[in-house]
Known about the structure:
B: 0% strand, globular
Amino acid sequence: MSFRLQAQELTCERDDRCLFRDLDIEVGSGDLVRIEGPNGSGKTTLLKILSGQLDDYRGSLSWCGQDLRSVRGTFLANLLYLGHTSGVNAGLTALENLAWYQALSGDIGDTAGRMAALASVGLAGFEDVLVAQLSAGQQRRVALARLELTPRPLWILDEPFTAIDKEGVAALEHRLVSHVSQGGSVLMTTHHEMPSLGQVRSIRLGEMRWQ
Amino acid sequence: MWRIIHQLGSPKGFYTLSARLQPWVWAAAALLMLIGGLWGLLYAPADYQQGDSFRIIYVHVPAAFLAQSIFVGLAVAAVVFLVWKIKVADMAASVMAPFGAGMTFVALFSGAVWGVPTWGTWWVWDARLTSMLILLFLYIGIIALRGAYAHRDSGSRAASVLAIVGVINIPIIKYSVEWWNTLHQPATFSITERPAMPAEMWLPLLLMVVGFYCFCIALTLMRTRNEILRRESSKRWVRDLVRGQ
Amino acid sequence: MSHVGPLTLREPRGGLGVAVVATLRRDMTLKLRRRSEVMNPLVFFALVITLFPLGVAPESKLLSTIAPGLLWVAALLATLLSLDSLFRVDFDDGSLEQMMLSHQPLAMLVLPKVAAHWLLTGLPLALMAPLLGVLLSLPAGSYGVLSLSLALGSASLSLVGAIGAALTVGVSRGGVLLSLLVLPLYIPVLIFGTGAIQAAIAGSGVAPHLAMLGAMLAAALMLAPWAIAASLRISLNG
């Protein structure tokens, strides 16, 4: 399996403010890329553009050599995006939330798979509890359970370490490394230091150059 | 032809091209409205039924025409902006909307004033007046939506979508209001449908309508130029322009 | 991680039906878990209708003349009241973002949400309207048309209103703005809805009015989903 998300001379201006200019990014199989930069430097905007949500850019964006706009469906089928907001509805149980995620991509899935995914993020026993009754960290874990649920090669994660405890951080770091070693790739923003992750490529925004 | 359209699409090109165009349109507007206004108000014959009060037609009808045309203009600009991402179209739309709302209000107000001598009351639920009132609400909605967004670019897009939704709905609204009107008020005296108006009456009206259109175009050009300078104030060519003067 | 299959590049498989059914079920579950959200528009409807005899006069003759209009206007406002929350929660918690990132067309995914809104707002209002018609001495023989016109019309109201809800979901305190945007667009539905009931009372043909309501619903079904999807994309990036 090999794939590549490539951005060339990516420039984004919003309300006449230039967020970044002429950015070249390449994310392929086995890459772990971290986007750094101070608050307001456009990290989230960049992730939204790279995940095909925001069309507000100049430059070219391609998936496996083809223009992203023309292969949007294929690209999205291989992408797992976890944003600022977790995408978890508080009025549903953890299981119901996961079932809906699976259904969005056309899978019916099975309860056993969802239970296992929840167990792997430490939520065994909380499957049928309304998410509203879970703590903030646990709610975040429900969102992270999606990483286990559907095998997607490209992960784009916006601040994935927010609100989870030490053990959770360690488990997630471990998960990221294993995903990359399996040939997947991770593109993320975080303020969290990750010494244990080994080879991480960094892109700095705000100064507009490669580090 | 394509070269001109292409040039109009870029803010700088629009700015330079409109500078050449603007004086002519202003002159045409002034001339037409002056001739049409004087002719209509002083020399056109009085109406055999309504006397001199019919002369309000020379403001009412052009304003009503513009009110509707500008809304269509908004929708066209919205499509151009959303499909081809031409920002000048959105800048023009942003200055046209308040003007269109103003024209709608003028049409409503002149209609109400006209209503006093013809119907003996300021307001009658006449189909045209009712449609105008709804049009005014649509304009206000678009202006309010544009202003409600924190990001200007998003506000522009939202207002564009609403303008398109609105323009699809206008014929439906107009048709249903007319239908409703015939159902509830048979045989009211319609104020704009005049049987066989003599040429001395409709010629000045025609001049006024064309004059109003020219005025609208001139004003839109002028205000779009201002908007370009405002939005592009960080661009090099604008700074050069300011420094040059 | 043993349960996770090997990483492979996937082609977007269909599954639109699965996604649509799951979204409909999800929204219905959510609404039914929060009964008050379903009940509030109904109570509002009843309250507004109660206010009119108190505000105008309790004469059955007068009330029966204005009843079609009153019932329709009150139902329309009740629908409007519930629209603000249509996308609000999904917008705040990021579910909308996930919907947009699905390879399914967003326009098709919003349809079940609107359908859920109609099933739990418009349809109950239509079923409840005859009861309130009794309070307003609505002439006999028009009750069926009242329900039918409301059921048909409120579906259009949900669809058109969802455009407004999508446009204002990213705006703080967008509720009033929403009514400003949506109410003018509701006028044709109101005219033909009340027209149907008045025709039923007068004994003239009801079919043309209902046909118009049906035509408007068909047009809204075709066009509104795209406008809703486009508006949601704008709101999500605001």
